[in-house]
Specification:
It catalyses: O-phospho-D-serine + H2O = D-serine + phosphate; O-phospho-L-serine + H2O = L-serine + phosphate. The chain is an alpha/beta fold. About 45% of the residues lie in helices and about 20% in strands. It has 9 helices and 7 strands, in the order E-H-H-H-H-E-H-E-E-H-E-H-E-H-E-H.
Length: about 200
């Protein structure tokens, strides 16, 4: 039994925080897991910037409503789901993911949740499980699944390396250079062919 585990941002949809950085005019918010491997540190830093600028969940959700999947992403996902089971494993939050899942045809997603005050201020976040992508892949393997994983960032490397087959997709030159043993692809056709061969 195979199951494909995909990252969300950078793989199927544009990076939410980069879109919000552009919309809000706060360039510091462009920093993502491609730049900062420590997700906890990155999120606390982001929340500090939001607080400083008086921005909350409503403003981020307004930006997310305007984000469309990367061209070809939904078709890729549809083709993949015809072949095998697919789970999106993301470090994003349920409060961000909803509108994007609708545009992708409601695939299964495992992600985290935000702690939001009544006035809409994001006061914290709750990770579903520590090292969520790697832990989820190991849990799926423990119930009899062979996993195939793909992602673009530092926080995807654990699940990619722990899987039967793993691929980088639209990653950075630095991550590709640091992980020469992981096949890297730039188009959905290439990724689909690689996954198909691994099934």
């Amino acid at each position: 039994m195979n199951i494909v585990c995909l990252d969300l941002e950078g793989v199927l949809v544009p990076e939410i925080w980069i879109a919000f950085a552009e919309e809000s005019g706060i360039p510091e918010l462009k920093r993502t897991t491609r730049d900062e491997p420590d997700y906890d540190k990155l999120m606390h830093w982001r929340l500090g910037i939001l607080k400083e600028h008086g921005l909350g969940l409503k403003e981020i959700q307004e930006t997310i409503a305007k984000i469309d999947p990367i061209p070809g992403a939904k078709e890729f996902l549809d083709q993949l789901r015809e072949m095998t089971q697919v789970i999106i494993i993301s470090d994003t939050f349920t409060q961000f993911a909803g509108p994007l899942m609708k545009k992708l045809g409601y695939p299964t997603i495992f992600c985290n949740s935000l702690e939001v005050a009544e006035d809409g201020e994001i006061t914290g976040f709750k990770m579903r499980i520590e090292n969520s992508k790697y832990s989820t892949v190991k849990a799926l393997q423990s119930i009899g699944y062979d996993t195939i994983a793909s992602g673009d960032s530092h926080n995807d490397l654990g699940m990619i390396k722990a899987s039967k087959a793993g691929f980088l997709f639209k990653s950075t030159d630095q991550i590709k250079q640091d992980n020469p043993d992981i096949p890297a692809y730039e188009t959905y056709d290439e990724l689909l062919a690689a996954i198909k061969a691994a099934l």
